[in-house]
Amino acid sequence: MRHLIGLRGHANTIISTTDVTPNAVNWANVGFDSGPERYVYSSRQITGINQTITLKVEYSTNFTDLYVKVSNPAGGNDGQDYTLFAPPYDDMSFSYINNNGTFTVSNNQYVTFAADTGTPSVLVTVKNTSDGNTTLDTFLADIT
Question: Residue 139 is part of which domain span?
Fold first, then answer.
């Protein structure tokens, strides 16, 4: 949180400002790897903000199976890329997200993306609607 201190006579004035611009994030590509038949997930922590922000995903084509999970730090796979035999829809904490879909996230929470096997390859863009639709990252949802 940033503070500005102004002096007026003998009184100090503290003005708090909001910070809705997170530190840089870089999600890895997600999807289905048909070689070892595993789903590829990517999780990153959102830091550097002092209020809840709204993120939006954008993608083109007939992309149908992007999933997102917002979670508090709990260990496990938080903050890393990982593979599982289980598809994202088997984990009830994941939610399907449409093109132009939004979700909220607070400081120090993790955002994890995953995709199902039925999707064509597509570029996914994550934007911060709380900061003028600033692009945070782009990654590929792909089947290999």
Answer: 22-143
pTM of the model: 0.84
pLDDT tens sequence across 1-25: 444 444 455 566 666 688 999 999 9
DSSP 8-class letter at 75:
S
The single-letter code of the amino acid at 88 is P
Q: Name the band, by pLDDT with cuts 50, 70 and 90, for residue 60.
A: confident
pLDDT at 118 over 60: yes
Please state, in angstroms and as integers, the Cα–Cα distance from residue 35 to each residue in 12, 39, 85, 141, 144, following that order: 64, 11, 12, 16, 7
Dihedral of alpha carbons 121, 126, 129, 132, sign: negative
- The answer as to whether 12 is a domain residue is no
CA–CA gap between residue 71 and residue 109 (Å, rounded): 6
Q: What is the CATH number of the domain that holds 113?
A: 2.60.40
Q: How many domains does the chain have?
A: 1
Within a domain: residue 4?
Answer: no
